Amino acid sequence: MKNKRLFLIMGAAAMLLSIPFIAMQFTHEVNWDAGDFVIMGFLLVGTGLVAELVLRNVKATGSRLLICGALLLVFFLIWAELAVGIFGSPFAGS
Predict the structure, then answer these.
(1) In the chain, what are the domain boundaries?
(2) Is 32 helix (H, G, I), strand (E, B) or coil?
(3) The Cα angle at residue 20 between residues 69 and 24, in degrees rounded to 5
(4) Cα–Cα distance between 10 and 83 in angstroms, integer?
(5) What is the DSSP letter of 93?
(6) Is this prediction's pTM over 0.90?
(7) How far apart are alpha carbons 69 and 53 in whole angstroms?
(8) d(CA 45, CA 23)
(9) Whether the Cβ atoms of residue 68 and residue 54 lie closer than 8 Å to each other
């Protein structure tokens, strides 16, 4: 079961990365370069692997939910900052 979940995480990351790649073939609205794919791949795989680590090592369901929820919140904040610069950091190109 543990390895199956790990393959699902990697497959989900690849599937999510394929969405902008396919969209770039049909529209000029989506304009990602190789660096964008690398950064988003790192974020997706890193978040998935940390969530897998939490699920394997934390036994209490409430703690699992709290830690994974905080992990997702951090992921979404980093994603939003890199996408539109909600905090105005230099990482967003602001």
Answers:
(1) 2-92
(2) coil
(3) 165
(4) 22
(5) T
(6) no
(7) 14
(8) 21
(9) yes
Residue 1 in tokens: 């079961």
58 residue type, one letter: V
Instruction: Report pLDDT digits (tens) over 19-46.
Output: 999 999 999 999 999 999 999 999 999 9
Looking up tokens 């997706």, which residue turns up? 44
DSSP-assigned letter for residue 90: G
Q: What is the pLDDT of residues 63-90, one digit of tens each?
A: 999 999 999 999 999 999 888 888 877 7
- DSSP states of 18-75 as a string? HHHHHHHHH-SS----HHHHHHHHHHHHHHHHHHHHHHHH---HHHHHHHHHHHHHHH
Q: Which two tokens stand for residue 70?
A: 């905080």
